Amino acid sequence: MVFVKMANTLESQSGAPKEIRIVIIEDERDVREGLAMLINGTQGFSCVGSFRSVEDALYRLKDQKPDVILTDIGLPGMNGIEGIKVLRESFPDTPFIALTVYDDNERIFAALCAGACGYLLKNTPPSRLLESLREVVKGGAPMSPEVARNVISIFRDFVPPPEAVYHLTPQEKEILKMLVEGHSYKTAAVQLEISYHTVSFHLRNIYGKLQVHSKSEAVSKALRENLV
Questions:
Q1: What are the 10-residue block averages of pLDDT along the chain, 228 residues in total?
Q2: Which CATH architecture has domain 170-224?
Q3: What element of type H or E holds 189?
Q4: pTM above 0.85, yes or no
């Protein structure tokens, strides 16, 4: 596996503020072990759990506090999309990245709506995978280039419904607009010259008004319904 081969040769990034704790859910043993080896062999990263199914993760993850959950979609038993929905109830603030061979629009859209913050294909180079893990922890939404093109296609072909009324305040609309443009919480706070905690407060209100549970869902709804 490419992950195994690259684990011993990839130069680690220095100066990371803290170790990023990763949980892997992947049914193929070689891929699972290769990912764990890559993550544990790179400075600033640690694999704190490696599971072959969502059910196994649900049973054994209770005491873990991962920074990112990296999950396959085509899993035995509960699939990864349903798994994201279920696991998010226990880890509402943890970003999920789908790592899969599937690049069709239906699965991409379903995964993002379920709460995935990123969507990568399994041919992603190890260096890009590690970069994506850092990116998602900082509030980004990493995607493989093929997936990003499909996402653009999805929204290009989608006819938005009449604008719904969610009673967003001007500042809430501005913050939502910045999320759509790709800003993280921190960069939005800097741009608006307000504190990170103020952004978090407004985001909780935005999530409540839009009836969503994550940044990716809020961005998806804003694009679908032309809210910004």
A1: 47 58 96 96 95 93 89 94 92 94 90 92 95 94 90 70 73 89 85 88 90 86 83
A2: Orthogonal Bundle (1.10)
A3: helix 185-192
A4: no
